[in-house]
Design goal:
210 residues, binds magnesium ion, 23% strand, binds guanosine-5'-triphosphate
């Protein structure tokens, strides 16, 4: 008998200040290429990444939200029904790190899961090929920062050199599946919910809600 393959579709937001590399990360992740030229995103762009997740298929619908949108009033509309988020900053520009908490607050104030919890969010310290000024100069303890600000993990990434992007996405998917299981259990307390959260070799450098 043919086994029916399960499919999951998740909307994932990619947010963070202007020029931190959101579009570049998505381009690297989905199309395996990189361009050094900067063209600011206007409004929102979309990309689809299809993953094999054990015996199942995961479709990530990536919403690439322009950095300038934090000052507009459309984020509430863009965030709707998302299951997870990447919040990105540029390790060479401290102001973009300072904006991380503002983006996270914006996210949490406008979006929550049906069980009232916040969506899974992973923090990306991008452009690590250019140094790690923000991380070293300020003595920022990233693990602590993530715990205090409700991130499930963080990764130093480079869209240019293709560092840690797959790993960060695996971490996010793992936590999205876990929160989906949580919601299923809350909705149908007397039945056994499907075990979607099978371990995969995702080398999640800092998972606080495993
Ligand atoms: P907005 O659309 O304005 O919000 O910006 P964005 O966050 O989408 O930034 P984008 O991906 O357009 O990248 C901005 C600039 O940074 C571009 O010139 C990219 O080539 C460069 N860039 C992005 N990621 C990296 C990286 O990992 N390393 C280096 N060296 N440059 C990067
Ligand atoms: Mg962009």
């Amino acid at each position: 008998m043919q086994k029916i393959q399960k499919e999951h579709l998740y909307k994932v937001l990619v947010i963070g200040d202007l020029g931190v590399g959101k579009t570049s990360i998505i381009k690297r992740y989905v199309h395996q290429n990189f361009s050094p030229n900067y063209r600011a995103t206007i409004g929102v762009d979309f990309a689809l990444k299809v993953l094999s997740w054990d015996a199942e298929t995961v479709r990530l619908q990536l919403w690439d939200i322009a950095g300038q949108e934090r000052f507009g009033n459309m984020t509430r509309v863009y965030y709707r029904e998302a299951m997870g988020a990447f919040v990105v900053f540029d390790v060479t520009r401290p102001s973009t790190f300072e904006a991380v908490t503002k983006w996270k607050e914006d996210l949490d104030s406008k979006l929550s899961l049906s069980n009232g919890k916040g969506v899974a969010a992973v923090l990306l310290a991008n452009k690590c090929d250019q140094g790690r000024d923000v991380l070293t100069n300020n003595g920022i303890k990233m693990d602590q920062f993530c715990q205090e600000n409700g991130f499930v993990g963080w990764f130093e990434t480079s869209a240019k050199e293709n560092i840690n992007i797959d790993e960060a996405a695996s971490c996010l998917v793992k936590h999205i599946i876990a929160s989906e299981n949580d919601m299923l259990q809350a909705e149908v307390p007397d039945t056994v919910s499907p075990q979607l959260n099978s371990p995969r070799n995702a080398s999640c450098s800092a998972c606080f809600r495993s």
